Amino acid sequence: MIRKLSEWWRQRQGERLDIPESLWDEVEAGLPFLGHLSPDERAHLRQLAREFIAEKQWSGAQGLQLTPHIQLAIALQACLPILHLGLGWYAGWVGIVVYPGDFIIPRQMMDEDGVVHEFDDEVMGEAWYGGPVLISWFEHPEDTDGINVVIHEFAHKLDMKSGDADGMPPLHAGMSRQRWSDVMSTAFEDFQRRVDGGEQTLLDPYGAELPTEFFAVASEAFFETPELLRCEYPEVYEQLRSFYCQNPLIHGAH
30-102+118-244, superfamily in CATH? Predict the structure, then answer.
């Protein structure tokens, strides 16, 4: 009953948002990878985006003024991975902090001798377990160098649903954890070898850092450049197709 009341409240709040059709069209035109969605899926994504905007707590950092365009663009991209999973996959946290471009996060790291090193890490986004998602906003897509910051960070949030981010989100009934582990680890090791060998990979080389980064980078490619991912790692594509319950290569398929 409580869950149903929560869903009802979220839907009502989303419906209260006054988003003109012209703004939907303008934002969606800048997200061409939504083109594979059927009309029903497009309508459902819009509803999820409405509820997502209403449910989360938004803030602009470093003087960035959040606009309806920025919020809608982020919401549509964030909700694309959970189009057939539901907003419950983003439960347990509320904050979204948007920065005007890259930002700095102070880090501490202890080396093998026990010495703590402090440094500034320039990042485009970061997802915190149980906490907010930090995202860079770029007015011009070309400034991101082919990286989808939103899908990347929200893939981390899905990964964290099973605990620590390790590249294995909670899998659906009928999916094999062993099969997922075998496919992902084999692909990750191959990708890491290629990147370490100096190859100019078509997928973002950042995916070679850790299994969780490979999952996030593969998720970006799954939605933005599905042909590329299926060509490079067809078994990874199939695992993500099963997990996201979508097939971006086929119009309107899920």
Answer: Glucose-regulated metallo-peptidase M90, N-terminal domain (1.10.472.150)
